[in-house]
Every structure is written in structure tokens, then in C-alpha cells.
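Fold it.
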Amino acid sequence: MKNFWNTLKAKWYREGLKYSEFPDRALSIILPLTKDCKTFLDVGSGCGTLSLPLAENGKKVTALDPSHAMIEILKEEIQIRKIKGIECIETEWGKKKIKPHDAVICANVPPLLKGAEDFIKDAERLAKKAVFLIEGADPNADRFYYKELYPLLFNKEFLPRNDYLSTYNTLHRLGIYANVEIIEYNFDQPFTDINEAVEFWKEYIPLVTEEFDSKLKGFLEKKLVETKDGLMAKFSKKSALMWWRKP
């Protein structure tokens, strides 16, 4: 994920986070289960999706992420909100020694949870009391309207993806019988105008030439919702929150 989150994508994610229900949905489960936990390790913290509200709830958080752009945004947010209790570490997982924390969280970090056995063992070792893993819960879920865009742009379907069951099977194989909570939430993405929206999709798909611009623009003009500030892409997501307590 180090090279995935460039400055442009990080900026868009930060804007989308303002309209996301994900932090509230996730923490409504995590916080009641961690009343005895004071320190949290947020692996793949990004720009502070969970680190910031955890700190606002009185927790001490180590936010670890390999993306310079994401860590810089997190530092900015810490200053803006005048939040204390967050230590930012810009590094890839496994490249720096991390001390144990009461709880370890890893939310929506596919590279770590794909073939997750080594990461799970590390998380178990670093967690004194609890581990929380969050991953997509629907292999047929759409992503940025790709189910409609792939046939339109490439004349092929957007194929199903792996979801949390692969990670859950790994946990089971390791003798960890995790609890699972399915959470549903909106994660909408704002844009100032249609041109910014086109650039967003070209960055994410990705498309490096202009040959698809007219089709993409025509599709988005019909799909996006007008707001007083510009345009909004409406997304609904479903994730599995897998958690277990240490004995």
C-alpha cells in the first residue's frame, strides 16, 4: 500500500472520510469491547480513520502506515483537532520493531490480510488483550461502479473478489475462533465538478490515456448526485469485523 496512496488519492480519501459512517459503525463495536484497553496499535492507519476517534475517546494510539501522503494528512488532522495521544510511524509492516499494545487493529488493508497467517501471528504476539481485523464482507460487492463501468469501457465484467472468509478460515486453521460482526455503512465521495470526478476514476481504474474520457464523463454525469458544493458519488459498503480476546 506504500505506493498506492499517492498525494491525490490520499486527498480524495480524506474528503470522503468526512461523509463516511465507517468509523462510527466500527467503533460502536470496538469501544464497548475494549474498556480495559488503554493502548491501541492501528496497523494501516491511513489518515486516521480509526486512530483519530480512538484518541478522541481517550485511547493512546500508535498509527502505523507506509504511505507518506497518508501520514502527513494524519499529522495535519492531529494539529487541526488539537488531539493528543497519537504516535505516527511511517513504515511498512515488519520493517520496524513495535512494542506490544493492549489492542491491535487492522482495518481494510488487503495486502496484509491476503495470505494473512504471518500477520495474524504477529498481531497475536503484539496484542496483550484483543485483536480486531476488518475486511470486506461481500465478494460480489461493487467498487466505484465498476460493475457498470467495466462492460462499458473494457467490454468485460468486473470479477468477484476475495472477502473476509479467506481470513476467517486462516484464523480457524490457527485455532483462533473469532467473533464476527457484519457492519454496513455509507462511504460517499464528494467532487467539486465533473472533471475532478473523471480524474478520480482514471486514477483508480487506472486509465492513462484520454480514449475513455467521453464515455466515463457521460456515465458519471448520469450517476453522480448534485449537491450544494458540487457532486457526490453514493456508495454503500459491507464489512466483517472479526475480533477475539486474548485469554
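The chain has a mean pLDDT of 95.
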